[in-house]
Amino acid sequence: MRALSIAILATTILVSHQGGSIADSGQGTVAADTGSEYGHNCDGKDGAVGPNGKYGTNRRDGGNCTRSDRGPVTVTPVLKTTRTVSGQPIELPKTPELNVAIYKIEPGAELKVHEHPFPRYAYVISGDIEVTNLDTGKTRNFKEGDFIVEAVKQRHKGKNAGEKPTILLVMDQAPAGEKNVISK
Predict the structure, then answer these.
(1) Sheet with 166-175, side-by-side order of all strands
(2) What are 96-133's pLDDT values in tens digits?
(3) Do 49 and 58 touch, CB atoms closer than 8 A?
(4) 121 close to 10: Cβ distance less than 8 angstroms
(5) Could you tell me how far CA 167 lies from the centroid of its own chain?
(6) Where are the beta strands (DSSP E) in the chain?
(7) CA–CA separation, 81 vs 72, rounded Å?
(8) pTM listed for this prediction
(9) Kind and range of the H or E element at 118?
(10) What separation in angstroms does the CA of 119 have from each of 28, 58, 104, 148, 171?
(11) 147 and which of 35, 79, 85, 100 could share a cystine (Cβ 3.0–4.6 Å)?
């Protein structure tokens, strides 16, 4: 259930994202249904509740809105998974605190070797980042539009090997007051 909340969180944060690529650990599955229970009311009556009790379902003919009833909100699934990039199951602390930050990594800059004791997620807004996991020996490249479920309790480092800054939206779920980056 908690992994599902991560997918919902990611979709909510990225609701305006159009046409990104899908980054998956190979362990998870990609969401296939792009329908949304909220959004455009097909008859133009914003805020109306449709026949099934959900917003955005009030068509002039009395039916429910469908994907073909285009509106101002498009939901594009980016990632749905229960695993990190290294194949670990996602396990949240009992009462996690969500911390969100924007990282700007200049060309040639490196993130030192570190690990995360709790889940961390990153969405690549722009640029590229190369991540090397020292415990598995694997290196992966992530590009604009990719969503990363970072490895937990495994040493890794990152590098912007590109020619423009990399911008990441980073989300941590750790117990309140606890650090989620441990330098190694």
Answers:
(1) 96-105, 166-175, 120-126, 147-149
(2) 999 999 999 999 999 999 999 999 999 999 999 999 99
(3) yes
(4) yes
(5) 14
(6) 96-105, 110-115, 120-126, 128-133, 138-143, 147-149, 156-159, 166-175, 182-183
(7) 27
(8) 0.64
(9) none
(10) 16, 39, 20, 11, 8
(11) 79
